[in-house]
Amino acid sequence: MAVNCDIPDALIVALRDARHICILTGAGVSAESGVPTFREAQDGLWAKHDPHDLATPDAFLADPVLVWRWYRWRRDLVAEAEPNPGHHAIARLAELVPRLTLVTQNVDNMHQRAGSRDVIEFHGNIFEDRCFADGSLQVGDPTTAVPMCSECGSHLRPGVVWFGESIPEQALHESCAAASDCDVFLSIGTSSLVYPAAGLADLARQNGATVAEVNPNPTMHAGSFDYALAGNSGVVLPELVNCLAV
Ligand code: OAD
User: Fold this and answer.
1) Residues 207, 176 within the same domain
2) Which residues are part of the catalytic machinery?
């Protein structure tokens, strides 16, 4: 297959020689599936809603019906979308390298639907229902405006991390360990504005990894990365995998 490889040769060599690759994805990797990102003015989720009115524990307690309505709208939006070539390329990359750790800030389950396994969900999963009181995984009644916990009677909430909440401990630990250990770190489709996720690339760099981003709009970190591939992940990632596979 003719490969139009715009990927720098040195990055391909680094990927080919890597013992361990760590990937961090953000909303941009799902953009080509039609799932809105957060901060893009024209169609970002936040363009229509102030996140602090919807994605915080206080917002939920103030109006659980509104918050559930917003998350169910997002669930339906995501459920109708399909993984795009970027998601599939990441799943295929895992078969081409000795070890790949995938950390995602996305809650849309798209990586899993594309075949990626052991996905570290930094911000949870929108399709999970959890007890508001103890965070346990529950199965809520989708027909009620605010589903209740069958065990304790508390509200159920979507299984996502809200502003002001901490990252699930195991996800944070595993992500930091992978970023510290990897030989190549790829930051894909994220504005790199939200910490601690945005700090993983620095952690990788401090431990000697080659760091690259894939984003049509270079982020403020691009200058400190080894490579900034300015393109859509649905185009760049299949090209990167094809270059590796030859
Ligand atoms: P953002 O909306 O902040 O950034 C999306 C990034 O994707 C931008 O930098 C775009 O330039 C880029 N992008 C757009 N289309 C792309 C494409 N086709 N290919 C590659 N990149 C593309 O979303 P995140 O960085 O994911 O947290 O936001 C991080 C966190 O902020 C989210 O997980 C969420 C939000 O608060 C929580 O909800 C806890």
Assistant:
1) yes
2) 123
